[in-house]
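Preliminary data (for renewal application), fe (ii) ion complex.
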Amino acid sequence: MSALETSTASDEVKENLVDAYKTVTDMSWNFDYDGNIPKVHDLYTRAKTNQWNADDLEWDTVIDPSNPIMGRDSTQYSEMPFFKRLSQSQQETFTAHSTAQMLSQFLHGEQGATLTAATITHGVPDMQAKYYAATQTMDEARHVEVYDRYVNKIAIHYPINPWLKKLIDVTLQTEDYRKVMIGMNMIVEGLALGAFNNMYRQTDEPLLKSITFNVMRDESRHVSFGHAYLTPLVAKMHKDDVEDLAQYAFDGVNILVGSQTETTEGFLKVLEVSGIDPKDFGAGMKEAAEMGLLTDLPPGQVHSLKDLMIPALVRAGLITPRTKELFEGIGVPVNEDMTILHAMEDAKSDQSILNEESASY
Ligand SMILES: [Fe+2]
Ligand SMILES: [Fe+2]
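Predicted structure:
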């Protein structure tokens, strides 16, 4: 086979990895370059001064197979009786693959975030917000880069979970840039910030710890943007328009909540390589739920939905009395306590989220 034929064959394989579709999102120019939204301007300034280069991380770090990226006793599963009943080698394989599966979701989710941040850049009508969203687009591209490099380093790849793809596609396919912000800066990034925080606290592997440290500094700005931009906008909107956005927020969270009861194909693969029968795993998770192990997290860990997403929606005025009932109907209490949300997006210092001594959660 000639060199040309080789590259054509490989291009065909690569084409199968592309999922392209048309979207109908808002687009706006704005020739008022003087517009100023102070909090958004602050976020843009912080973004400019806190840019970092993925090349500066210690990519030569050797990941010691005898000291894996996640210890057997440090994941969300460690305390569950079903996990303790597994053999040592099953525990190690399950821990390695469930962690790798999550890292692949970080990678694919970051690609989705790159697309949504670019969408907000062209859709949002305010120039300052365009400046900010352009920095977020760069941040997200860097996050794709670091997780891609890390996933390649550990050499265990998993596909995107269908529910995560659906949640991001719904966000990308709306016509309204404000809905893109709700789907990304409030729902998906609330989910991500909680997951990154937990990963940061669970792993002792220095390269992954430094990646997560840097990514979280960026993500705290991204979650703050949803608040800084949308909260004053929602406060001035007609109540019918608020209801429309509130319904959109509920529908997005509902995709996430619905996913919690489904075992994805990727996770079935994790179980298969670990020699765990999916029925036994299901029974083990039910048992753990009955013991409160899914809701009572270890100190320092956060619950993305309860601690970040719902308080962020409440704060922006995006949970109305009508949708509050809808949330309660799907078993999601509307938590109005913003302590953890505030701690993780402290506007004064991007470092504050990682100061474990001062963390009150
Ligand atoms: Fe990101
Ligand atoms: Fe982000």
